[in-house]
Amino acid sequence: MTENHESHYTENVQEHLQQVQHLLDKHALVETLAHKQEMPRAERHELVDKLLHKQHLAELREKLGSLHSADVAYILEALPIEQRLLVWDLVKADRDGDILIEVSDAVRETLIATMSSDELREAAERLDTDEIADLAPDLPHAVMRDVFKSLSIEEREQLRSAISYPEDAVGALMDFDMVTIREDVTLEVVSRYLRRFDELPDHTDQLFVVDRNDLFKGVLPLHRLLVNEPDVPVAKLMIADTIKLHSNEKAEQAAQAFERYDLVSAPVLDDDGRLVGRVTVNTVVDYIRSESESDVLNLAGLREEEDIFASVWKSAKNRWMWLALNLCTAFFASRVIGGFENTIEKFVALAALMPIVAGIAGNSANQTTTIIVRSLALGQITPANARRLISKELAIGVLNGLVWGGIAGLFAYYLYRNALLGVILTSAMLLNLLLGALAGLLIPLLMHRMGRDPAIGSSVMLTAITDSGGFFIFLGLAALFMSH
Amino acid sequence: MTENHESHYTENVQEHLQQVQHLLDKHALVETLAHKQEMPRAERHELVDKLLHKQHLAELREKLGSLHSADVAYILEALPIEQRLLVWDLVKADRDGDILIEVSDAVRETLIATMSSDELREAAERLDTDEIADLAPDLPHAVMRDVFKSLSIEEREQLRSAISYPEDAVGALMDFDMVTIREDVTLEVVSRYLRRFDELPDHTDQLFVVDRNDLFKGVLPLHRLLVNEPDVPVAKLMIADTIKLHSNEKAEQAAQAFERYDLVSAPVLDDDGRLVGRVTVNTVVDYIRSESESDVLNLAGLREEEDIFASVWKSAKNRWMWLALNLCTAFFASRVIGGFENTIEKFVALAALMPIVAGIAGNSANQTTTIIVRSLALGQITPANARRLISKELAIGVLNGLVWGGIAGLFAYYLYRNALLGVILTSAMLLNLLLGALAGLLIPLLMHRMGRDPAIGSSVMLTAITDSGGFFIFLGLAALFMSH
Q1: Cα B462 to chain center, whole Å?
Q2: How high is the ipTM of this complex?
């Protein structure tokens, strides 16, 4: 990654955010600029420049200039849209590309929307090919065509290959900044070769040994280069038995390999064993973080990461699919209750107790699913132990049914002085907990077998089953045994 | 980390798991051993050895011997308890420590339970001090005392300091394997110094420059050592403006710094600016993964990571707290409904419709909380923009209330041919969505201000509010306007 290594590092970027916000607040022009938001960027820039004699804005520009690109990206994320665009205007144009790479998709969209084709082209051309590939989906076609033309033949090939991989393939995490050497030279020769570089690519912890056809032979860790005498040949020190990633593999596999083996970089080979790129730990960290974030977002039924300052309309759209699905299942559950209106009319206590049956089983089923989804992701569930898990979860269901169902039954008996009602409540909770345990186990297992991500959508199905199932079981039992 | 670098690496550890399971299945002794589970480890070991002439067990031992410690740990996680202990017995004793470090807390407990004090002491003594500190909570006091005695004075100091930090402090992530140099020497001298090492510590991407009092001066990246001429002095090439972590800082801050700046290692200083340790990216990756996992587990109300093969009793205990809390809120909601039994008796349709009001608002509030918790974790929410977020979430609540409440109202009107009922349902949903939006925003903000983790327990409070609130609003409106 082409980064500005001379900018300041900080453990606590939030201090910088507060300083920037303070400067923005002091700067009364914010409101004026907010009105000009619809202006093209160039004009706004002009206006901003005209006002640059204002001290606060100059201070702000200076402050931003001293920050690392990643910190500017962080600050842009945390600012409301009009302040964000003001800050974006003040950032030096030659860092645009680096910053666009760092911000989230939602914020990137708002920034790109204000840039002209020329600005976008210039920003993209300053990036490495693997970074251009990351930006590609957000860039207009015409810009991408121009950028493509500006690249060397080798770079075009890299860009084409980087764009071609699906988001969850190792190829999408890959960069092309590897240093390669031959096995028949000595460390002395390698050292002299390295001294011809101004700078080694970031995260170069090992050199890749290839033959003249780019066939991968092994790696030479920099550590070995440093602790051994200069006259030893590479062939003697290189490690052939090292982790080798393949560009079509799942990215998650690569991430797990980085975690297990504490890697900093790893070679990526094509089907013929040729070295085509490398994956570095910083990309893996970003991948792990974004995967775990989308897990949490998906659990709440959010389709994508949300810019907290996005418009009401945009945020609502992000959340609607889920609410619509839930409304459908709620309508269904409502019709299940509707079918027992006669029974409820006679024993109105049923209406007060039925949410208990549905709620506890829903929570318990959700716990089961969470554990299963996690084990599936780690590949810990095999056909050999699936049956064992089913009996275990059913046993927990019985235990929970007796304990919590028993307590609920006593609660009902105490309130309504009706032993039969208590027994029916306990039985309904027991049965619904078993139903929930089965559903909580089988839904993710089936989704996994069908090749779908079990983390997405499991919970809406679960709730549908434990709600409707709970109402049906409880009201059904009551209709059977209490109507006489 | 002291690792066996000659063992095999693999992208796909699941293949190995399947091979091990296959060997275990072929091996009919598993059942026999399961009965002996209560024997002390030494006796079982003897028994296992006696049976070692059996070909499958020998094959299994060989297979395990060829695997990387991290892969053995992975396989142990994925095996049911009796097979796990059999495999654990077959693993060479000198890798026990490495493997104990790699497995999850729940599985570590099951492994340690089978080991004698001597075995535990030997395993611990083979580890680095920062690793011993990780194991410490699981080791018996007597073992820890013996281990402590076996250490050098410097190591004792390290161990004491590593144990003293809370789990979420930078100090808990720290190791002591840093290579330090002085600023007044040339690269030539540094290179000669490094050649005296057999091996550099893992993740050494930079050397730490200190003065004779251990005061931190800067870092010398290995890259600079490699690309520059030998006669340049360290002082000219070292970077003083680099990230500096502090041992008492929050680990999450350090993790975010690693992500933002793509670090491989970072120095840790004490309050006087003395270098006390370093943090490396592999520890940060583990930290990020375990944090994101506990987020997901906490959302479902699981207290801790669960060994999927733990006993029913143990698993149930892990899940009970949450279910008990939910039962309490369900009882409360039930009493709210109970207060309107007269109204429900007259209009039994209310019973069928009320779960819709509660459910949709609960889901919507949960979405709000998820977004707020994420922004809080990133430090993006400041007093300056909190008010703006409140108006935005309320606006989304109004929009959702009109859209989904409207649809639900039409549904009710269509089913029951009662326009007033439809209007009441729509109004109740609108009001409850607003209540949910407020609760979804304020609960995590308040918990954060009180210094508590907003990800834990927010959802049980939310459900309590949207359930009870929803029933109260809907039934209350109905009682007011439909009783005439």
Answers
A1: 23
A2: 0.84
